[in-house]
Design brief:
The protein is mostly helical and 364 residues long. The chain folds into 2 domains: 206 residues, Transcription Elongation Factor S-II, Chain A (Up-down Bundle), CATH 1.20.930; 111 residues, no CATH class. 54% of the residues lie in helices and 2% in strands. A hairpin with a 2-residue loop joins strand 2 and strand 3. It is globular, with a radius of gyration of 23 Å. Bound molecules: iron/sulfur cluster. The site of iron/sulfur cluster (SF4) has 11 residues, from helix 11, helix 15 and helix 16.
Length: 364
Amino acid sequence: MDFRPSAKELSHFPFLKKAQDYIKDIFPPLEVLLKQERGKIITDLALTRISHALSQKRSFISHFQQRHEDEIASFVVSRIIASCIQDKNLFDRLARYEAERAYYFLVSEIGTENGERGWNENTPLDEEGYSPLSKYIANEFRINISSDRMPLADYVEIAAPLHDARFKLVNRRVQQGYVEIKKEERYELLRERIRVFLRRDLPFKIPKPLCEQLDPVAEPVKKVYQEQMLQQFGAIDEDAFPPCMKALILALTSGTNLTHAGRFALTTFIHAVGMDVISIARLYARSPDFDAEKTMYQVEHITGRGGTGTEYSPPACAAMMTTGLCVHQDGLCEKISHPLSYYKVRKKDMAKTKKTPETNPNVI
Ligand code: SF4
């Protein structure tokens, strides 16, 4: 593809091969750079990237203040620091963050829906509204962004981890080995492919002396990360949960694979009662076949942090009955129509009596 992204464009998508080529001859070897003032600037930017990746809230600034090459280098250094820390969850979060960031820059290239100026607003667009850069990136990730269909094998590979029901193959129109893709879904599939590719490359093999050199910056990251995990992985109070949710948790703990409906009901419920994404993943970690990366991705999708912004609500009792998830109804169940109502009433009840449900069975 005969297109040369500008330095500014490369700085927004630092994982592109051309971005890496661009900085190759600008900086000295990392062990030398780290001793320089410029190295400190880049390291600080890298640490900001990591802290954003670990943050519960995502916000992206597309009009950078720093030099393009520093921005690109910070992407590399953040991945090197993460590789030295050697934590699988950190790799997952970093890859997801970079993919979401890329998605944001793709959709905001010429402006946002709320009237913000695009970071690349003067780029030409083709008749379908795609810039040369967006086509270039899609091409690098082997996606034809201008096409309204995708080969079945590619689609299955990309969409398999996506939780959203609209991506399930049974809900797609498949014709002659191709899956139809709506225009607004193309960047979402591209985001997923970017995430997978970025995650696949981690961790890097970093020489021990370089990790030791990075220790002073990696240690505080590790500490903050561990504190965050400890804080968020704290004890989960499930006493006020309704019987259906307790049953799902019990099934999870005893190694039963939850159905799609079961996972959806449990995740949306515990998210609605205030459990954060990491704690939800922690709950799923009780399952013997726990896959952190897959779980985090699905959980973030359901809870609206996966880029679509759609936050799903837990199903009401009627829907739970339809899917066979309503079990062991108790006295309170007869008076409510939603598992969340059960939880609210039970909590209030527990606060009043200051007793656990075990010593205060189903009386309201
Ligand atoms: S009645 Fe509602 S709250 Fe009670 S077990 Fe069934 S679905 Fe859950």
